[in-house]
Design a protein that fits this description.
Distance between the termini: 16 Å
Radius of gyration: 20 Å
Strand content: 15-25%
Shape: globular
Structural class: alpha/beta
Order of helices and strands: HEEEHEHEHHHHHHH
Number of strands: 5
Helix content: 40-55%
Number of helices: 10
Number of domains: 2
CATH class of the largest domain: Alpha Beta
Strand order of the largest sheet: 3-2-1-4-5
CATH topology of the largest domain: Nucleotidyltransferase, domain 5
Length: about 220
């Protein structure tokens, strides 16, 4: 159906106060798990489409229910500096502690989290890490590389994971030396998951929860 620009403006005006109230609402003091992710979307402004980044924070409350803490738009690409402003806003809205923050491999992201929430454990998304690793791999080797990475993040302990990474490096460093180095560089933000039982690991080792929200937003 066709709708006029005037109707869009009327609808927007009718809900704007409610939107602002939601954006600035107080948050809970503690979130056991927080997923943080950004995605590129097109926004129509003054008759033209612009590429912007939508920053999204999804938390698990102590009750066990998930809650979108907020959504923020930026005209630039995803960056740790903007994430720092997001984290500061979350803190000012009442969040005192986040137990585990699940993020992708964006450079400077863990440092930004530590600056606002120094006691938070940062867990790097394993799926993002695998995707980054496969950027260096030819199609014929991808299945084997993925299979050999599994013993690392599916290990029962940190020591077993370290042994699996060593075995991976011995097999693949001659062809793809960058992969093991990527995992070593991020090791401190990979291994927190080994401190938790399997049900918690399945929740925190990927950012699937927030990416499901992203998919819903893209449909809208």
């Amino acid at each position: 159906m066709e709708i006029s620009a005037g109707l869009v403006s009327e609808v927007t005006s009718a809900v704007m106060e409610e939107i602002k109230a939601w954006q600035h609402r107080p948050l809970e003091e503690i979130y056991p798990i927080l997923w943080l992710d950004g995605m590129r979307i097109k926004i129509r402004e003054e008759g033209r489409d612009t590429n912007q980044t939508l920053y999204l924070a999804l938390g698990v409350k102590q009750s066990g229910h998930k809650e979108v803490l907020g959504m923020w738009l930026s005209s630039g690409g995803e960056g740790a500096k903007f994430w720092l402003s997001v984290l500061n806003e979350i803190h000012h809205r009442g969040v005192e502690h986040i137990c585990i923050a699940c993020v992708d491999g964006l450079k400077g992201f863990p440092a930004a989290i530590e600056a606002v929430f120094p006691k938070t454990r940062v867990q790097l998304c394993i799926v993002h890490l695998i995707r980054n690793s496969l950027k260096f791999v030819s199609w014929k080797d991808r299945k084997s590389v993925v299979s050999d990475l599994k013993p690392i993040y599916q290990a029962a302990t940190v020591s077993e994971a370290e042994s699996a990474l060593t075995a991976f490096a011995e097999r693949w460093d001659g062809i793809y030396p960058t992969i093991s180095q990527i995992w070593l560089n991020h090791w401190d933000n990979i291994i927190p998951l080994f401190d938790y039982p399997a049900p918690i690991r399945r929740i925190i080792y990927t950012t699937n929860a927030i990416e499901a929200v992203n998919r819903s937003l893209r449909k809208v």
